[in-house]
Amino acid sequence: MNMFKIMIDTQLTLLKTLIDSLINWKIRSTLFHLKSEGN
Question: What three-state secondary structure class fits 39?
Fold first, then answer.
């Protein structure tokens, strides 16, 4: 049971990390796009 909980916690952490990096990438590409259009 404890092993199962650890596995789920690990997967949730990985998922959160993945989502965070996707959001950061989206923000960066959007800002870059806006900056390119500004010039």
Answer: coil
To 10 degrees, the CA torsion angle through 9, 17, 20, 26? Answer: -140
Q: What angle do CA 6, 17, 33 make, to 5 degrees?
A: 170
Give yes or no for residue 38 having a pLDDT over 90. no
DSSP state of 1: -
Residues 33, 39: Cα–Cα separation, whole Å: 10
Alpha helices in the chain (DSSP H): 2-38
Is the model's pTM score more than 0.85?
no
